[in-house]
Amino acid sequence: MEARKSWNGVGFYALRFCQERQIPTEGLGVTMTTERDAAVPNKVTAIRLGVTTPAGFPEKYREAITRAIDHCAVKRAIAEPPEFEVKVA
User: Fold this and answer.
1) Contact 6, 31 (CB under 8 A)
2) 43, 44, 51, 85: least CB-packed within 10 angstroms?
3) How many whole angstroms separate alpha carbon 83 and alpha carbon 51?
4) The whole model's pTM is what?
5) Three-state DSSP class for 4?
C-alpha cells in the first residue's frame, strides 16, 4: 500500500467548499492510499481518499463536502474511464 498527501484535484474541491462557506481551512487535508496488484506491480487496483476536516467543521456539511469532491474531473475520469486511442504519425 502506498499513502501520500495530495492536494491535486480532490483537495481543490475540498478547499473551495470550505472557502465558499467561510469555514477555516487550517487542518484541512487530503490523503490518498493506493493498492496495487501483487502480480502486476504497476496496476493500481484501489484508490482510497481520506479527507481530514478542520477542527469545528460543521457536521451538517459532511455529506455535502463529499458530494463536492465527487465533482473532481480526475476522480470521475478514473471512476468512469474514457476510451483511449493512440495514433502514431
Assistant:
1) yes
2) 85
3) 30
4) 0.76
5) strand
Pairwise CA distance, residues 76 & 47, whole Å: 12
The residue type found at 79 is: A
CA distance 53 to 83: 35
Instruction: Assign domain 2-79 to a CATH class.
Output: alpha beta
Interatomic CA distance for residues 61 and 50, integer angstroms: 16
Specify the 3-state DSSP secondary structure of 51: strand
The amino acid at residue 63 is E
What span, in angstroms and rounded, lies between the C-alpha atoms of 64 and 54?
A: 15
pLDDT tens per residue across span 25-83: 999 988 888 899 999 988 989 988 889 999 999 999 999 999 999 888 888 888 888 89
H helices present in 1-89, as ranges: 10-20, 62-69, 73-79
